[in-house]
Structure prediction request, 442 residues.
Amino acid sequence: MDQKIFIKTFGCQMNEYDSNRIYDAVKKIGYEKTDKYENAHCYLLNTCHIRDKAKEKVYHEIGRVKKIFRSKNKPLVIVAGCVAQAEHEEMLKREPYIDLVLGPQAYHKINDTILNYQNEKNKQEETEFDAITKFEYLSKIKNQTSKISSFLTIQEGCDKFCHFCVVPYTRGPEYSRPFDQIVNEAKQLVKNGSKEIILLGQNVNAYNFENFRLSNLILELEKLSGIERIRYTTSHPKDMTDDIINVYKSSKKLMPLVHLPVQSGSDKVLNLMNRNHTIKTYLEIFYKLKKINPNIEFSSDFIIAYPGEDENDFEETIKLIDEVKFINSFSFIFSPRPGTVAANFPLIDKKKSMERLEIIQQKLFNNQINMNKKLENKTIKALVENRTDDKTKLFARSEYMTSVLFNGSDDLIGKVVKVKIKNSNRNTLFGEAIENQNQKVA
Prediction:
């Protein structure tokens, strides 16, 4: 009898990609995916260490699993991902319910690790950094993702060592996958029905394999007839080189939303963060892209109340937001990550931190609202991904990744559709499809 595996994924898009590839791998040893956790013979948590209390969330989830399976046979419990990488020794000691621990660069070992445990019942952790072997192994296993919009990891790890960030310690040094390996996986995704490819990396624009850059990869994927849209995330300003910027002049499929985390509007704070870019260089990138295409919009990440941020630094961040008018951005109060340089820095008062966050978020939310309001009574192009959970509307995304809801038939799924926007809120556009969709929309 086939055994069933349930994977709960926390955190970033790369974790979602990794979870899908884990599913592809464990099929080789007889595991089938289940969406019902109570039916699982194997329960895997794919964890994220970026946000606050990540470790506690894992133990809370393990406690929940214990209750679910109290009156059933215990499943094989695996903790994978970045928390597993950072806390592997402690986890097996602290929580006997955990059987196996796998870091994010050890997924090529998952089948052997599971089989060894089934035979010998020895708890095990695999946390070596071995991205080359991992991707070589996974490249031989067909990526069976069949979503309209699919993630594709092209680069992992980080050499930047921002003082607040755990990624260099949980994902290892920067590694770029072989160019042909990525193109072949993209072709498989297109064959599966994907119309949009989102290229992923901790520093995706640092991609560099035998002098092939992200720009070369975008232009190569553009040749694939099945692909309608290309995106990439997450970028670092230091790696936003002219060749990538100039792709926006020639590419017809690269979407006009640039997610480029700035973290702060203050050069002093950026220096404290070890970000290795300035606001001047960030704005130079912004205006170069706006000159190429005025319709390009920026989204970003902001860390508010970073240790050392004073009122003047905070005002500099507000000034930057007013100038760039970021859309769809993320903002968080600084929370120390164990093992990072900033972990022991003195924190800013919690009340003051929250006040600053609320001011920043209101500005960012207003930018989203204003952007969406501008689209009302206009016609946009939206890629239809599926139906809403209640099956009453089609769910699509605009060129700027905004959710779009409208009535329509299932034969529009997977197509780029012209939609006239009737109204909107901060997160969603509501409209109606324009007739004569038989004509292909580029």
